[in-house]
Amino acid sequence: MQELFFRSAGERDIPALASIYNSNPAFLRAHLGVDRVTEDFLRSELAEMGRTGFLSRLIVTEDGRPVGLSDYRPGDTCYLSLLMLDSNWQGRGLGRRCYTILERELVTRGCRAVRLDAVKGKHSPAPFWEKLGFSGQEVVPLTWGGKTSPALVMYKSLPASSLQLIRMEERYRPLAEELMAEWTTAGEKIIPYAIRKTDYRDFSALLDSLEMHEPCPEGLVPDSTYFCLDVERNKLVGAVNIRHRLNERLLLDGGHIGDGVRPSERGKGIGTRMVGLALKKCRDLGLDRVLMVCDKENVASARTILRNGGVLENEVVVDGVVEQRYWIQL
Predict the structure, then answer these.
(1) How large is the average pLDDT for residues 43-50?
(2) Domain 4-157: CATH superfamily, name plus number
(3) What's the average model confidence in pLDDT over 2-10?
(4) Reported pTM
(5) How far apart are CA 33 and CA 69, in angstroms?
(6) 150-153 long-range contacts, CB within 8 A, separation 24+
(7) Confidence band of 123 (pLDDT split at 50, 70, 90)
(8) In angstroms, how far apart are the furthest CA atoms of the chain?
């Protein structure tokens, strides 16, 4: 079964969004009182979502086929406005899979609960949401496209993320030395470069090397380096380096984020969650989109980027190596 990815939906996706909406006429009749929507309607909806703080996502398969969409507004309590599958993909357990992926994204964003409004009636989705752990609270009027319907307000509490990005300090020194020793013993190049450019055994020098502030030496940009701490296990599992802006070299093949997971922690989804936390830091810096780059042969890194909404722009050859350049809309 193909993996599913959520990515930012934009103008180029209007035809795909229309196809998904119009494959669900019963939903449209219940919510909007119509059998079909136009591309102009969806263009207006997409713009309104952006103005009111909602994030619109297109759900695609590994080979790029659209299967669904979601709209949500992040916050302490996230408001999930819509999660919809193309009718041709329904009945395969994809709804549960899509929500599970979405919930991981929300946890990474720091959301503590999810609210949604399930329209009541013959085709109410409330039973589906109850199976996913949501509980109904009250019935309220829900208005969309000029049609008002009774809707059950449903909530679900979310678990706190066990991963945190931390700045290195003396109390984490033993954990950092263990992390770096494992990487060194494995004989691998330690990634990101920011944590290997100084001998980690000289802890004072390591600390001084983890931040770059303006004014920067020629060819460098301001950056911040964070280590990823698994709070439950009190273990450092990786690190990320975030460049606050790009120069010509980074725009070609470096990007905004460099990341690495220690050898013993790979294959557990940590890279995906760690990059998600790094993207939150990028939002805090005021960035509205982020470039991430990986070798074409590094399939694991490419999947990490795709799972965080990356869209491949192109491939470039740098020093004989094919690099893939992905943009992530924040």
Answers:
(1) 94
(2) Gcn5-related N-acetyltransferase (GNAT) (3.40.630.30)
(3) 93
(4) 0.87
(5) 20
(6) 150/119, 150/120, 151/117, 151/118, 151/119, 151/120, 152/117, 152/118, 152/119, 152/120, 152/124, 152/126, 153/115, 153/116, 153/117
(7) confident
(8) 68
